[in-house]
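Lab manual, section 2.4: Encoding a predicted structure.

Procedure: take the sequence of the chain (243 residues), apply the prediction step described in section 2.3, and record the output as C-alpha cells. A sample record is shown.
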Amino acid sequence: MKLNILMVEDDQSAAEMMEMFIKKEGWTMEVATDGEQAVEKFSANPDQYNLVTLDLNLPKKDGIQVAREIREKSPTIPIIMLTARNSEAEQILGLGVGADDYVSKPFSPLALIARIKALQRRIDIEESQSRAKAEADKVKEKFDVETEHIKISKDRREILFDNKKVPDITPKEFDLLAIMAEKPKQVFSRSQLIDYVWGYNFFGEERTVDAHIKKLRHKLEKVGANVIQTVWGIGYKFDDSQV
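Recorded output:
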C-alpha cells in the first residue's frame, strides 16, 4: 500500500534524512515544522494522510496537544511518536493521548520504516477482520421471509415486526406465522395448518390451531398489529398490506 505520511518534526536534517528512506519505499511525505502547522495541515484534509509521525518536543504547540487535536479529527489515523525522552511516564502519556507506537531518539531510519510497516500490517489485518465480521453479520441478518412489516429468520427462529422483535414466540406459533407469511393473502384451512405444523399424524382437535393463533395474534399486537385474518368457515390468512 502506498502511504502518504505527515511527519511533524522541527529538526530539518532529521526530516530530510527520513524523507530519503520514505521515498525509497515508494511512499510520499509532508513535513510540518511546529505543532500549529501540524494541526493546520492535518485539519485541512485528514483523509489525505495514512500515518503521522509526531515529535513530542515541538515549538508553538507540543506533541501531546497535537496528538489530542489530531485524534479529534480522526480517531483511527495511526500515530507514531518520536522523542528524545525515554521515560516510562512520557511513553504512557503519549500512548494515553492516542499514539499507536513510540520511538525514542536517536533512532535508525530503517527501524522507523520497520515500525511503520509493522503498524500498517496490523491495521490491514484489523480492517480485514472487521470487513469479514461485517460480511458475516450481513449473512446472519438475512431473513427467509420479508413482507411489508414482517421479517422471519428460520435459522435464528426470529420474527421482527417493523424491526422490533416479537417476544416469547413458541415453536408452533413461529411455524404457523412462517408458513402463512411465505404466501401472503393465501387462505389456509385449519387442517392444512395442522398438516404443515403438527404433521399428518396429529390426532388432536382442529381448534388447537385457533388457540395458537389467538396467542400469536396477542404477541404480534404487543409490537405491531394483527396481521392474521380469520376467513370465516375456512381458516386463516396472513396479510400486512393494510397495516
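Check your result against the sample. The longest helix spans residues 109-140.
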